Amino acid sequence: MAERLRDLLSIEELTAEEIGFLLDEAKPFQEFQRYPLKKLATLRGKTVALAFFEASTRTRISFATAASRLGADTMNLQAEASSLKKGESLLDTARTLDAMKPDCIVMRHSSSGAADFVARHLEIPVINAGDGTHEHPTQALLDALTIRDRRGKIESLNVTIVGDILHSRVARSNLHLLGKFGCRFTLCGPPMWLPREFECLGKQVRRSSRIDDALEGADVVIVLRVQQERLHEPALPLDEYILLYQLTPGRLKLARPDALVLHPGPMIRGLEIDPAVADGPQSCVLEQVTNGLAVRMALLFVMIATGAEIDDARGPAHAAH
Ligand code: NCD
Fold this sequence. Notes:
Blueprint: H1 16-32, E1 47-52, H2 58-69, E2 73-78, H3 90-99, E3 104-109, H4 114-121, E4 126-131, H5 137-151, E5 158-162, H6 169-179, E6 184-188, E7 205-208, H7 211-215, E8 220-223, H8 238-245, H9 249-252, E9 260-262, H10 275-278, H11 285-304, H12 307-313
Parallel strand pairs: 1-2, 1-3, 3-4, 5-6, 5-8, 6-7, 8-9
Helix pairs in contact: 1-5, 1-11, 2-11, 3-4, 5-6, 5-11
Bound molecules: N-carbamoyl-L-aspartate.
């Protein structure tokens, strides 16, 4: 990549070449997760600030573990216990963290555009770990890595995304990423969760509120969580959702026999996905979690290691090459 990645705010702003570069950088870190001793000194002395203004389990732990396995320290903002509760603005909180001199900020916030806003005011790199309903770039990168491993490519696949697409930053980032590699999309869910604007995100995006129709010929099925916490009232009763949209073994048979099933988590078994599918041979759910570590290690490495550290690290971290 000619220019160094300054921030990672969205997939939309990346080129296919930059995405390919990040996925390639993640490869040796995938191998690294199998080492008995999971500690590198690559980012020793560096500090990663984790500013999660919105609840998160896997993404926060994944970034914290990625930083620690690279030898970096972390600074943790706990939104519940922080001055935000006392009325401090987002920018003042971000500037306060910045004044403690971290080398980058990983940020999750319930407002779309929050990471971009902070990045425009701070000198250090900002990584968007999910902003409102806008984007979740590292989730799309780890999904792409998982698909590329299992299928050998991410180009020109038929991708079906099922569920609460309206509220999903994961759907948006995946549409941007896989769309740059010529994938065709079918978006499936209740009509009120299938915004027409999503068709503008790519040339090859169609919507369908019938799951049988949407699954036919799919190479990849991405199942989304029903985000009940974002709804004032359910758009349709949950038992009806289960009946119409749950990914069951019978329905999965309509997709290609080797179709992959992805879910970003947290997964609500028995609601959007049948446990037999979640635990079945086509499910990539746990691989996605492990690949999340590799992608986030690669990203922190690319964004905050200096030239000399990169040269040093090409030793152990890239031994698999
Ligand atoms: C997703 C998120 O928070 O955007 N989860 C995740 O980061 N793995 C999806 C979700 O919350 O449903």
